[in-house]
Amino acid sequence: MNRPIQPDIHPDADSLNAFVERALPEAEHGLVLEHVAGCARCRDVVYLAQQIAEAEAPPVAQVQIGARRGWSSPLFARWRVAWIPAAALAAVAGVLIWVQLQSARPAVDMARVAPPPALPAGAATSATAAGVAALAPSEAVAHRPQSDNSARKVGAPPAPAAAIPTPGMRAVQRNAPNEFQLQDNEVRMSPPAQPDLSAPTAIQSERPLANTQWQPRQQVPMSADRATSAKSVQAPGDPNMIAVHGGVMAATNAGPKPLAETAAQTVTQYEMMPQPVDGLAALRLTKHLKLPSGLNPVSSAAMLNRLLAVDSAGTLFLSGDAGKHWDAVPVQWTGKVKGVSAQPRTLAAPADSLETAAASIAVAPSPPPADAQSSAVQPANIKAPPPVPAVVFRLVNDQHRAWISSDGRTWHEQPQ
Amino acid sequence: MEAVPAQTVATAVPAEPSTVAQCVIAPSVLDELWRSSEAEACGLSRAEFEQILLRIGMAQNFGLTAGLPLDVTPGQQAAFFTSVRIADLVRARACAGGSEPAWERFIGLYRQPLLRAAIAITCNESLGRELADGLYAELYGLTVREGGRRCPLDSYSGRGSLIGWLRTTLAQRHVDQHRRTHREQPLDEINQSAAPIASSAGQPDPKILPLLASAVEEALESHDCEERFLLASYYLDGHRLHEIAAVLGVHEATVSRKLKRATEAVRKRILRDLERRGLSRREAREALETDPRDLTPEALTPGLGGMSHTGLSAENPRRLRLKELLQSSPAKPFKEQAGR
Predict the structure, then answer these.
(1) What's the predicted TM-score (pTM) here?
(2) CB–CB contact B335 A48 (8 Å)
(3) What is the ipTM metric for this complex?
C-alpha cells in the first residue's frame, strides 16, 4: 500500500501535489493538513508549488481584459462611473419628454379627429376672397417669418381678382414649415372675440401690425383640410396673411372693411374654433379613465375642457375640468343612454366662452353674397341671423331617440 | 537523447500484494480507458496497461473508504478511474519503465515547463537549470538503490497532474537544499538581523518562561489543524492572505476572518493559562512581550504542532517568528529568504 503519511515522514510529492490541487479525499486531505500545519518544510513546499502553479497558469482573465476594445477599453474605464448618473438623467429626461408629449396630445387629437367642416356657401365665398388674398404665390413665400418686417405688413399690392392659386402656391402653403399660426394655447384658452359681421372692419393698408403677436409655426404642420379650404378659395384682394391675432380681430373703426378681409377673419376664426372630440378618443384627453361608477366608459364626447362620458350602465357623467372630477348628470331622458357625441364645428364666429361658442356653432351662416366683389363694396349688408338654440352635445338612447344639450347638464329632446 | 536504461514495467511499478493478480479490471472499463489514455502511443501493451491500472486501484482501494478491492463493481471502478489522470499516469509509468516513445512525449510536453518552474523557484536561471537537470537525472533512473534502478515517477499515482507533481518535486528538492545550506549564512548577517529584535525585547523573568512555554503549547494544541496551519503560515512563515487562501481554496476574506478569530483565541487562552498558573493579569500581559528566543526549543516545539521532526533548533531563525505570533506582526516569506 502507498502510505504517503507516516510518523516522522513527510508526505511525498504525489500527496503534496494532490493537496495543492485539492485532489485528495477528505480524510487524506485532513491528514496532510495536519502534517503541514506543523511542518515548516512541507508548508514551504506547498506554498512554492502553489505559487509556481499560479504563475504557470494561463492568465485567462487578463487576456480577456486585454483583448477588450471599444467602450470597455481602459480608455473609457474611468467614465464607467459616469454612465450610471448619465443613464439616470437620460431616463428622467425621457420621462419628462413623454409627460410633455402626453400633456400636449389632447390638443393635437382635437385638431386631428375633427372632421373637415363643410363651409357654408357664403362663408366659403367670403373665405375665398380672403384666401386668395392671403395665398398669392409671391407673397406667400415672402411672408415667412425669416423675411423682413415688410413681409408682416398688411397692404401689399392687390392680386388679380380672379387669381387661381397655382400648384406652386399650394406647395408653398403645404410645405411652409414656418407658416404663421397662433399657438394652440391661445386657441384653447382665449378664443377671439366674436366679430360683428355687420360692422365692417378694415385693416389699414400700409399699417404695420404693431399689436400682432406672430408666432412661427414650428411643430404642427398645416393640416390637410386647412390647406384644402385655403386653396379652394379665390378672390381678389390684398395678399395679406390670414393669420391674425385676436386683438386685430376686434372690430376697428378704421373704416369699412372689405369683404375679403372679413372673410379672412372668418377663416381665421374657423381655425380657432373649439374642436369636438367624440367617442373613446375623448377619454384620451384625461388620464382618469375610471368613472365614478367604476364601470368602463362606452361612449364619450368632449368640447373644450368639458367631457361627457357614458358608462356601460347608461349613466351619463360630466366633467368640467378635463376629466379630473366627474358628476353624474340627472336623468332627463327616457331609456338607457347608448351614446353621446359632440356636434362638429361649423364656420361661425368665435366665442368667449363655451356657451357662446356653442351658440356660435349653432348660428346659421349668412347666405353667401352673390358676388364677392359686391360684398366687398357693401359689407354693411351682411348681418348675422338670430341665434338658434345651441347644440353642443347630443345623446342617443336605446330607442334611437336623441337629446341635445348646450352645456352637457341640461338636456332637451331633439325633435324628430 | 541518451538511451534510457532498460527496465520493464513490472519492475518499475512497485510490487503489490498478491491480490493484484486476483482482481481484474472490467473489460468495458479497460477498453474505454485504453482508448482514452494514449497508452499504445507510449509503447505500453494492453497487459501492461491493465497491470498499471490494477496496481493504482489496489493502492487506493478504488477510492472506497471501506470494503475489499475484490468486491469492487465495474461501476465503482469506472468512477474511480474518472478521478485519476490516466493519461498522465500512463505516461509516467511508461517513462519509469524506460519506454522511448513515452520519454519523447514526456520531454516534448514537460521539458520547458519544468525548466521555467525551476527558474521561478530558484529565482535564478543557472540555479534553475541545475535544479531541473538534477531532477531529470533522477527521473531517468540513474539512481541505483539496492541493486535496482529507482525512478521517482513510480510514486506518481495520478491523483494530481503530472506537471504539478513535477513542480512539487522541484519544490521539495529546492526546500531541502535550502534547509541544508541556510546555516552557511555569514555570521554578520545573522547578527544584523537578530540584533534589533534582541535589543527591542525586554528582559524576561526567568520564572515566567516555563509557564509561558507551556501556555503557548497548550494554546496551539487546542486549535484544529486548519487554524494552526493559518497561524503558522501567517505568523511563522509570513505568507500573505491571498497565498494562504489559494492553498486552502477559500476566499481571502475567509482566511482573514479565521486568522483573526484564531489569534484572539490563542491570546485569550495564553492569558487565561498564565493567570491560572498564578500570574496576575498584568504579569500575563507583560509575559506576551517576551522574546520567544528566550523560550527553550524543547518547550516550544511541541506547542508549534509537531515541528520537532522538521529539524528546528534553537538557532533556527524561523522560530524567532513566534514573537510575531504573539505580537501580531507579519514577517518576510520563505521565498524572500530563499532568494537571498
Answers:
(1) 0.46
(2) yes
(3) 0.76
